[in-house]
Design brief:
CATH class: Alpha Beta
Helix content: 25-40%
Distance between the termini: 34 Å
Largest sheet: 4 strands, mixed
Number of helices: 2
Shape: elongated
Order of helices and strands: EHEEEH
Length: 106
């Protein structure tokens, strides 16, 4: 599994990169056929809320493409939220595959 982490209007430091790789890499335990995960971290300025940190994640696997976009005032919290949603989506996909396989055998 290849994890690509990039930043937009944000310098991705080594601690941020390591944290994102560890968190996002956890989804591999739910689905073995993940080929690549692209993570884009960005920061946007808002007059009302100040800085908004965003984590956009694209996951590619055999017959699978998932996209998750999460925002928070804290970059690490945005990564955590994106990981939680991504894990849930991957588990749902895996369950769907199991159900499909059960229905196919008589």
């Amino acid at each position: 599994m290849n994890i690509i982490i990039s930043g937009r209007r944000l310098e991705v430091t080594e601690p941020i990169k390591k944290y994102a790789e560890e968190k996002i890499g956890r989804v591999n335990k739910y689905f073995d056929h993940i080929t690549e995960i692209d993570v884009t971290l960005s920061v946007e300025k808002s007059k009302v809320e100040g800085e908004i940190h965003r984590a956009d994640v694209l996951l590619f696997g055999n017959g699978l493409k998932l996209k998750v976009e999460m925002e928070d005032k804290d970059l690490y919290a945005a990564i955590d939220k994106a990981t939680d949603v991504l894990e849930r989506k991957v588990r749902q996909h895996k369950e769907k595959l199991k159900d499909h396989n059960k229905k196919g055998t008589h």
